[in-house]
Amino acid sequence: MKPLLSVSVLLALLISCNANPSKKENEMSENFITEAQSNKVISAMQDSLGEPVGFRIERGVQQVAALWRESDGTAAEFADFCKTSFVSDEAQLDKLFNTLERNFEVFDGYFHKIDVLLKEPLQLEGEEITPVDMMFGSYDVTSHLNDDLYANKIAFLAALNFPFYSLQEKTELGEKWSRKEWAYARMGDRFIARVPAAIQQKISKTLTEADTYISDYNIFMGKIRNDNSEQLFPDEMKLISHWGLRDELKSNYADTVRGLEKQRMIYTVMKRIIDQSIPQQAINSDKYTWNPVTNKLFSTNAEVAASPEPDTRYNVFLANFHAMRQLDAYYPHYPSQLLRAFDATMEIPQKDVETLFKGLLSSPEVKEVAAFIESRLGRKLEPFDIWYDGFKARGGIPEEQLTAITSKKYPNPKALESDLPNILVKLGWKPDRAKEISSLIVVDPSRGAGHAWGATMRNDISHLRTRIGAAGMDYKGYNIAVHEFGHTVEQTITMNDVDYYILNGVPNTAFTEAVAFLFQKRDLELLGLKNPNPEDEYYLALDNFWSSYEIMGVSLVDIRVWEWLYNNPDATPAQLKEAVINAAKDVWNTYYADVLGGKDETLLGIYSHMIDYPLYLPNYPMGHLIDFQIGQQMRGKNLADEMERMFTRGRIIPQLWMKNAVGSGISIEPLLASTKAALDALKK
Fold first, then answer.
1. Counting C-beta atoms within 10 Å of the first and last residue's C-beta, which end of the chain has fewer, N or C?
2. Tens of pLDDT along 645-675?
3. Has residue 590 got a pLDDT over 90?
4. Portion of the chain with pLDDT greater than 70, in percent
5. Residues 485-507: pLDDT tens digits?
6. Of the candidates 202, 581, 280, which has an alpha carbon nearest to the alpha carbon of residue 573?
7. Coil, strand or helix: which one is 442?
8. Which helix (H) or strand (E) holds 60?
9. How far apart are alpha carbons 240 and 447 in whole angstroms?
10. What is the C-alpha separation between 572 and 557, in angstroms, rounded?
11. Section 308-313 average pLDDT
12. Does the pLDDT at position 4 exceed 70?
């Protein structure tokens, strides 16, 4: 059954409806309670209750005033609510906190379970997605929850009694806070914006459709031909962009016969996707053969007319921007997606993140590592060598050999799921603890490249999603699955073993990426293929460095594009495409052209994360840095013990978490020092 509307038409409609919030929605973001009215309430309450609770009164009343709307009551009713609902007694405040925390877990947990089930037809292998599947999958079951919590005054009760602290305040004060004080501060983060349900639904719909667009963006590699009409890839090879294409390119470093030719072909495919010259007929279809170099399509050796993809990629990106921009008016503390991504979500200022990235990208170690790679390859580096994979042990093992092992070991999702306790034992967990953790993780066959979806209440299930074909799990799928398993183990530990529910999780997604990287780099070891080479430590440092070098530039492109969008909010998809390409060229010319060649290269614009995960990319390089520092801390220690020690700290701010875990904040210096030491040792 075909969709009622094409993806491009649906996205065009989304852009038009998301670009301009309604008058009613804009009015809802304006303050109803004046500063004079709130100050009068603050003064009266402070006079009545005294200095010990003076700060909480001031901050709490200001928070409620910023969220209060005319529909919530008059100014007199606002004053009465604040005076009667403020809890000054510490014991009663603790009781209120426990009640709120318990009930928010109920809401979060069960709404999450509904969301997981509604999205299964979109995210798991199965029948063709129907318009009805899309309607249910894009429905946000939580969209009216906050409206209801404001209507019944629960949200105001929390905002009044648990102050919000800015990132700067958390940084200055947090080191001296007790665990309970941190929990109280996180309760204060819960109600800082009042987003109408209609906007939440639009955002959910937009992001779900973006995710579906990317999940179904596959290239049938067996249909690709070179200039001699030769087939370079197996008939059954179907690769998702960009993950599958990138991983196939990486795997061909082990192919000394035609690996370089295949890498150049994949590189050309990627550039066609970026500039949208790729034929629409070549996307997720095996009907035609395609020569990416000449960009010609053939049907039984006869050339057919090709229609380029109509900037759908940038329609999707633009729809995300318009959706997320609607939140700006409702977040007084974080009035842009950039601020929400860095100060609110990552909890590291954007300027600090960019300073770290630019420091590594400009370091002398870049050219030294590049020269070392050239010596190993025996040729000049090309732009796609940004994904050089030869520092990993598998760089010398042909992928077909690895796939023969993984497909036999994991013929289906259940086989992988049943082996999860054994994997954890190999990583250092005791058998009983390994069973306890893995009992809360299930393996699902994914439509996309794979992802992890953690629970949002204790004793619920985390979902490990990965691709497993009819012939069993290939090595690419296995490598991704080990990465996603790291996520689910972290999600399970930080949900069930952190002392306060409201502190569950990690400081930001870079930390869960760090765990995933720690697991992923041990994928061969888990197959019994670990090479006890004393030089492995050096190669791990070089691999982390080169991976950071790759993804930091991509992240700078993502940041620049979002800055451009805020300066050009009425841009068309074609203009956004040009902006992405220009940003990619500029970053490339600044940090990569002297190393990898290719002036005005566009390759940094290929990442699918830019399309379906708004401003998520910077978490990856932060994850590499965190991963490396954690890895150094774990050297010579039991991974399981160290992970449980570190990650049960929960969701405090990142720099404080790192100080507790490894003794210092997030830095590029340990990685640079280890990279230099590795080069010195390996060149001897």
1. C
2. 999 999 999 999 999 999 999 999 999 999 9
3. yes
4. 94
5. 999 999 999 999 999 999 999 99
6. 581
7. strand
8. helix 54-67
9. 10
10. 19
11. 97
12. no
pLDDT of residue 531: 59
Cβ within 8 Å of residue 514, ≥6 positions away: 623, 624, 626, 627, 630
Residues 587-599 have a mean pLDDT of: 97
Helix (H) or strand (E) holding 443: strand 441-445
**How large is the angle between the packed helices 475-496 and 413-426, nearest 10 degrees?**
60
Q: Is 52 exposed, middle or buried (CB count within 10 Å of its CB: 0-12, 13-18, 19+)?
A: exposed
Q: Could you tell me the maximum CA-CA distance found in the chain, to the nearest angstrom?
A: 88
User: pTM value?
Assistant: 0.83
Residue 315 CA: distances (Å) to CA of 12, 134, 322: 7, 18, 11
Residue 413's nearest CA partner among 174, 124, 179, 148 is: 124
566-603 per-residue burial string, b: 16 or more CB within 10 A, e: under 16: eeeeebebebbbebbbbbbbebbeebbbebbebeebbb
Distance of alpha carbon 616 from alpha carbon 327, whole angstroms: 17
The rounded distance, in Å, linking the Cα atoms of 640 and 428 is 5
Degrees to nearest 5, angle at CA 453 with 451 and 459:
145
Residue matched to tokens 């070179």: 226
pLDDT, mean of residues 124-149: 90
Which DSSP helix (H) or strand (E) runs through 291?
strand 289-291
C-alpha closest to that of 607 among 233, 242, 156 = 242
Cβ 242 vs Cβ 606: under 8 Å? yes
* Cis, bond preceding 242 (omega within 30 deg of 0): yes
Q: Give the residue, 331 or 13, on which the prediction is more confident.
A: 331
Instruction: State whether residue 239 is helix, strand or coil.
Output: strand
Tell me which residue of 566, 570, 561 sits closest to 15, measured CA to CA: 570
Residue 26: predicted pLDDT: 42
Give the whole-angstrom CA distance, residue 525 versus residue 180: 40
Q: Is the pLDDT of residue 228 over 90?
A: yes
The tokens describing 389, both together, are: 């994979």
Judge whether residue 533 has pLDDT over 80.
no
Q: Put the strands of the sheet holding 289-291 in their side by side order.
A: 289-291, 296-299, 302-304
In the numeric block, the tokens 């992970």 are attached to 643
